Amino acid sequence: MTTIKTTCSRCGDVELTPHDLALELDPAEDRGTYRFTCPSCGEIERRPANARVVSVLLATGVVYEIIRTDPITEDEIENFVSALNTEPNPFRLLTH
Ligand SMILES: [Zn+2]
């Protein structure tokens, strides 16, 4: 099992497994944020993740969610919905 070393603001150095982490990615950026629950104190911590950290974490099997920081417009939703109706592989849209 891969071990990921990071720091908790309360406990200092802690070791996590990929299962303990989640990545929050903004599609407009090549970096994101990772969050983890400290195995020692049980608090949720958030840390910025640069592009390198993101790719390392993804490679170890960390789950991720797509976060949009800019508000979605009505038009974008409409376009997305109509694209979903005609797109045989909707997941392809997410990579744009
Ligand atoms: Zn802690």
Q: What is the alpha-carbon Rg in Å?
A: 17 Å
Helix content: 10-25%
Instruction: Summarize the biggest pleated sheet.
Output: 4 strands, mixed
Number of helices: 2
What proportion strand? 25-35%
Total beta-strand segments? 6
How much is the average pLDDT?
Answer: 86
Assembly of the depicted chains? single chain
Element-by-element helix/strand order: EEEEEHEH
Report the uncertain regions.
none
Provide the spatial order of strands within the biggest beta sheet. Answer: 5-4-3-6
> Which molecules are bound besides the chains?
zinc ion
Structure classification? alpha+beta
Give descriptors for this structure.
96 residues; alpha+beta; two-stranded antiparallel sheet; 23% helix; binds zinc ion
Write a compact overview of the structure shown:
The chain is an alpha+beta fold and 96 residues long. Helices cover 23% and strands 32% of the residues. It has helices at 51-59, 74-86; strands spanning 4-8, 12-16, 21-25, 32-37, 44-49, 63-66.
